[in-house]
Amino acid sequence: MDWDIIFWAVLAALALVGELLTITFFLLFFSLGALAALAVAFAGFGAGLQIFGFIVASALSMAVLRPALVHRISFRGSERYVGRGGIEGRSGVVTDVIEPGGSGQVRIGSGEFWTARAIYPGERMEPGARVRVLGTDGLTALVEAVETEEGGGKS
Q1: d(CA 36, CA 22)
Q2: 3-state secondary structure (DSSP) of residue 103
Q3: Where do the domains of the chain lie?
Q4: pLDDT per residue over 63-87, tens digit each?
Q5: Distance (Å, rounded) from C-alpha 153 to C-alpha 148?
Q6: pLDDT band at residue 110 under the 50/70/90 scheme
């Protein structure tokens, strides 16, 4: 029985399963290296060449493929997360009516939608009204109406 073939096949499978469980894009390349060593073992070469093939294939695939994979799935192009403290002082527009004592929805900046409540409980704000965020209560923006003469405020 060819134990080296079994060894490389098991190592390739374990590394692949480990990668699927961790999603680190690290073990995947050892799996590829083990597959290369398995191919060398099938060709009938000795253990020394198999280990050399494993090391070279693992290192090359990690150096060449990992940066491309990480760049491909990176979230650089997605919108940045804005913490709730990051919206204080910004202006927005009411998109769903804010009833007195209730909540509605506002658009802050160029497209961040937040649940909002009027800072003054008896105030009603209609869609299209300009508001300024004075604070937050959990994930709800606390807003006040902005007079139209102010010309906008911060966005």
Answers
A1: 22
A2: strand
A3: 3-73, 87-147
A4: 988 887 777 776 554 444 445 457 8
A5: 10
A6: confident
Q: Which of the 8 DSSP states describes residue 100? A: T
Name the β-bridge partners of 91. 132
CA distance 89 to 82: 13
Alpha carbon 53 to its chain centroid, in Å, reads 35
CA 145 and chain centroid, separation: 34
C-alpha to C-alpha distance for 103 and 141, rounded to whole angstroms: 9
Q: Cα–Cα distance between 9 and 74 in angstroms, integer?
A: 31
Residue with tokens 């060709």: 43
Cα dihedral 79, 80, 82, 83 sign: positive
Q: What is the pTM of this model?
A: 0.48
DSSP H stretches of helix in 23-152: 27-42, 47-73
Pair of tokens at residue 87? 């919206």
In this predicted structure, what is the pLDDT of residue 89? 87
- Strand pairing report for 130-137 and 112-118: unpaired
What mean pLDDT comes out for the span 142-153? 69
**May I ask the CATH class of domain 87-147?**
mainly beta
Q: Are 38 and 12 in contact (CB under 8 A)?
A: yes
